[in-house]
């Protein structure tokens, strides 16, 4: 299995109890980060924007990593995101086909970086969902919804089986036909 | 030159890179343009990039993402193991593996066997090469070393 850069965490936190508010409201958030420390930091970042509470007058009650329930099943993921471009903020909806949600989130970050030059700090994931095949909007995911899918691999990249066997010069030109 | 080996559900492929190198797997579903869900009787179903797979000629009859039991039955019905081991590609890989696992005594035995094969084939070869080599040999015998150096035999 691939090791993911982005892990999904559930962070639960609240403001610290005070004389005026004995039992402050508890908030829970699901977010993606590379590790737990960053997840907690991101939690406070979002909570600050939504409620009048900061890390200095709040506490994290629980942080748990969320793992994929069915990592061997292929799913269509839709991701709604808000990102900051050079000129302003935009919303976006992207679809990915992957086996795990973490994998599709990683795909999303790399695609945003390559297609729009948007880096990780400038992306906020609004919502993710598993989309049934009928409701997919993008052609690139819909074209894989074929139970009798069949295509040839057009160019075969000849690769040595380990990096150690790589050589700069080869005696003959490679045969690219599959 | 049309394509004969397609990426399709049921195509048997050989892993040619990475941890699972050398394993025969079955393409069980296609994730997207670059990746496939891949399964084999003795491993957990996982995703693999097509760059790591070499497609073979063998294809088995399965539906999209079958259960492990169904997959094993289909592989036995299509007799993948025997077809692979009897194909020229499969046989070459078996020979390579055998050669890589030889110890010094085995290599000694092979050296003797090769010499024996050559020795037994001498009568056959002689009929073909003897006439020409004999003439060359006689010509070389009649030349002095200086003439040999000036001649263009070894150019």
From TrEMBL, chain A:
<keyword id="KW-0689">Ribosomal protein</keyword>
<dbReference type="InterPro" id="IPR023573">
    <property type="entry name" value="Ribosomal_eL20_dom"/>
</dbReference>
<keyword id="KW-0687">Ribonucleoprotein</keyword>
<dbReference type="InterPro" id="IPR028877">
    <property type="entry name" value="Ribosomal_eL20"/>
</dbReference>
<dbReference type="Pfam" id="PF01775">
    <property type="entry name" value="Ribosomal_L18A"/>
</dbReference>
<dbReference type="GO" id="GO:0003735">
    <property type="term" value="F:structural constituent of ribosome"/>
</dbReference>
<feature type="domain" description="Large ribosomal subunit protein eL20">
    <location>
        <begin position="7"/>
        <end position="128"/>
    </location>
</feature>
<comment type="similarity">
    <text>Belongs to the eukaryotic ribosomal protein eL20 family.</text>
</comment>
<dbReference type="GO" id="GO:0022625">
    <property type="term" value="C:cytosolic large ribosomal subunit"/>
</dbReference>
<protein>
    <recommendedName>
        <fullName>60S ribosomal protein L18a</fullName>
    </recommendedName>
</protein>
<dbReference type="InterPro" id="IPR021138">
    <property type="entry name" value="Ribosomal_eL20_eukaryotes"/>
</dbReference>
<dbReference type="GO" id="GO:0002181">
    <property type="term" value="P:cytoplasmic translation"/>
</dbReference>
